[in-house]
């Protein structure tokens, strides 16, 4: 929610150093936000295997992260330099800030829905995953719910002729306060509390299952007799069927390890996104509560500078998310690398696909090399155990 007032009071002028700092930071935030989030949208839309239900939620979050600074920074910067006299007309007065508020609310609810999806995947792994159609329907409901909360803002926001400012025109100031609290609860309070509960339960379950999995490793087949002497006739006891069963168990354990690691990595990624969200959004939420319930609306010069700084924190949130995806997701790493290599080589059509294929091949070679080393090590360990005989009760470590 935004509120602008007339600047006829003395002492409102910003220092030149602060203006330079503000314009530089605004420009940097807008540039990085456009670059990072545009690449995320490109990767998800261009790469076929990335068009999964989970990535549709990331795509929606990314679009919200794009809309917020695009509909705020250029217009707010011009407004601030115009001494807060609204130059855009009545239609944009009722459109710009509500659109930014809509995207912020949708982003918060999308993050909450992602936490619910991660909870379902981890806590109920055998339940059917959400389909793309279900996710698209959920995204539509998120935007519809956000729109309902923004409609009062659209109705009461208007261009005031006397002050030439775009202001909220509530009949009672207490109504404005109530709406500020409602937005705080919907945009920040409830989503953050819900996500905290979901991820706390999810991470606890992952740690518990990880400990149980490690303690449940299979014991090796002993080839040593009870009296400690090697009994060569017992070497034939391990039949082909038992060896096949052992290989099946090994494959299942490997698949379980891979699935568990992927779940842990994805959950950590979204937890990091939530932490950044909570940190970057908190100053602006506190600012609006202070403006309506404290003395923020009375101290105009301090309120304006504080508002600019708090809004910068909100915009910065849009920069961090693509970086988090790149750090935690191998698929996004390959996508970003494909874009960077194609730009660096200066190719034209098909460059991204070529570089993505090369990145896939490099990643496949590394995975094959790692699997080969693990296989040789297991064969070496098995041969050594057949010669020396493993200790009774020893656990195999694959």
TrEMBL record:
A GO molecular-function annotation: neuropeptide receptor activity
Family matches, as SMART domains: 7TM_GPCR_Srsx
Coiled coil: none
Membrane protein topology class: Multi-pass membrane protein
Any Pfam family the entry gives: 7tm_1
Primary location recorded for the protein, binned into one broad class: membrane
GO terms under cellular component: plasma membrane
Sorted UniProt keywords: Disulfide bond, G-protein coupled receptor, Glycoprotein, Membrane, Receptor, Transducer, Transmembrane, Transmembrane helix
PROSITE patterns: G_PROTEIN_RECEP_F1_1, G_PROTEIN_RECEP_F1_2
UniProt domain G-protein coupled receptors family 1 profile: residue ranges: 36-325
Keyword field contains ATP-binding: no
Subcellular location: Membrane
Transmembrane segment boundaries: 23-44, 56-75, 95-116, 137-157, 177-202, 269-290, 302-328
Domain of life according to the entry: Eukaryota
Family: Belongs to the G-protein coupled receptor 1 family.
Protein role: Receptor for NPAF (A-18-F-amide) and NPFF (F-8-F-amide) neuropeptides, also known as morphine-modulating peptides. Can also be activated by a variety of naturally occurring or synthetic FMRF-amide like ligands. This receptor mediates its action by association with G proteins that activate a phosphatidylinositol-calcium second messenger system.
Protein name: G-protein coupled receptors family 1 profile domain-containing protein
Organism from which the protein derives: Desmophyllum pertusum
